[in-house]
Amino acid sequence: MSAPIVIHRPSPTGGRRVTIHGQIAGLAHDDHDVTEFLRRAGLPDAETLLDQPEWVEWRGGRAHQYAAA
Predict the structure, then answer these.
(1) What CA–CA distance (Å, rounded) separates 69 from 66?
(2) 3-state class of 37 per DSSP?
(3) How far apart, in whole angstroms, are the C-alpha atoms of residue 26 and residue 47?
(4) Residue range 12-24, pLDDT digits in tens
(5) What are the residues whose beta carbons fall under 8 Å from the beta carbon of 37, sequence distance 6 or more?
């Protein structure tokens, strides 16, 4: 089973696309953006989920880094 939240590789212009259950939530430029997307999706304790691989998969690049690739 894959993680329901995917934070994709940094884009060439900066920021990372975030998907929740395969639906695009938005483009995050920092962890605050990600937690806001997750809060809007009904996950109020989102900041505690970012480092839990059963919830979040960080693809292409280091976790918590949003600068251009």
Answers:
(1) 8
(2) helix
(3) 17
(4) 999 999 999 999 9
(5) 18, 20, 25, 26, 28, 46
pTM here is 0.91
Q: Assign residue 64 a region: left if phi > 0, alpha if psi is -120 to 50, beta otherwise?
A: left
Measure the CA–CA gap between 54 and 5, rounded to whole angstroms: 9
Residue the block writes with tokens 């809060």 = 39
Q: Which residues pair with 56 in a beta bridge?
A: 5
Encoded amino acid at 12, one letter: P
Instruction: Write the burial class of residue 17 (CB in 10 Å: 0-12 exposed, 13-18 middle, 19+ buried).
Output: middle
Block residue for tokens 């605050």: 32
Write out the two tokens for 9. Answer: 């590789």
68, 60 Cβ separation under 8 angstroms: no
